[in-house]
Amino acid sequence: MHYWVRASSYDFAGPLPQSRSGHSAVNVGKSKIVVFGGLRDKQFLNDVTVYDVENKLWFQPECTGSGSDGQVGPCPRAFHVAVAIDCHIFIFGGRSGGKRLGDFWVLDTDIWQWSELTSFGYLPSPRDFAAAAPIGNQKIVMYGGWDGKKWLSDAYMLDTISLEWTELSISGSIPPPRCGHTATMVEKRLLVYGGRGGGSIMGELWALKGIIEEENETAGWTQLKLPGQAPSARCGHSVTSAGHYLLLFGGHGTGGWLSRYDIYYNDCVVLDRVSVQWKRLPTSNEPPRARAYHTMTSVGSRYLLFGGFDGKSTFGDFWWLVPEEDPISKRIVAPSPRKVSEKNDGSGTADTLLPARKDNETEESAFSELRKRLEVSIALPTKEFHIIDEKDDKELLELASKLSEYNNEVSSADQAAVTVRNHWRESPPGAIQLKELGTLLRDYKRLINLHYFNNEFTSKLLENAASHKEVHRFYHVKNAAQVKRDSLPLQHICINIVFPEIVCARSGFINGRLVVAYIVCSVM
Question: What Rg do the C-alpha atoms of the chain give, in angstroms?
Answer without folding.
Answer: 25
